[in-house]
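Support request, please re-run this one:
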Amino acid sequence: MGQPVNIAGKRFGKLVALKYSGISNKQGRLWDCICDCGNTCQVSYGKLNHRATISCGCVYNAHRRSIKPHGMSKTPIYRIWLGMRERCEKTTHHAYKWYGGRGIKVCERWQIFENFYADMGERPEGMSLDRKDVNGDYEPENCRWATFEEQANNTRSNLILEHMGEKLTLSQWAKRAGIQASTLHYRIKKGWPLDRALNASVDTYANRDSKRLIECRGRTQRITEWAREVGLTATIISQRILRGWDVEAAIFTPSKRPVKGDKSDCYRGGHRIYRY
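Re-run finished. Output below.
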């Protein structure tokens, strides 16, 4: 990492940077600052540069003492602001462990609802509050209004796949291929090559239509007919084909589970009997 930008003596709101004090794993480069009220504090360069922190906290405290009703406490935008703060600050909130528990905070400016509303405005229809950097704080430069799809593609657990020189999330690849994301995830989990997982027809490998004709050992009949013949269910045969089994193996490999609904042979003499 290069030398820090020298901001000693520069003013940021009510704060004046005094000296560089080191690097924090969470916040980056830290500066010792003095506030107009006389208090000193440590603030990251990023928060100073983006005006996310403009005082030692005295601005917020003064606002709390002189707060006046804004008349928006029952509006959707206020509930979004309140939910944001509760996730980061309220330890009893059900989502705290994923926000405040991971060190994510609401910047000092957004501790005041009016500032949040001035920066973000009304929520556009069909969108919700989203952080561009999912490991960053709630602050003006890191937040946006995003659609559900945009948010789904911006999570810590997202799986990024590269195919033919292009990198997309799993859900983006699934949408492009015209299949369910769960189907694509299942195929990849089972070890399918990405090209096959993207281009295989769902009907070819996931035969969910019990009326579809299957040819095996020189005979052609429906899955339900094969199932009755070998003592399996159509679902078991269909799932095996979905997982890439050979058709003959999918039909004639015995099941180690009792056939649901057929209780005549499930138990005999107190022992479970498996259908083969």
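Residues 175 and 251 are 32 Å apart (CA to CA). Confidence is low (pLDDT under 50) at residues 204-208, 262-276.
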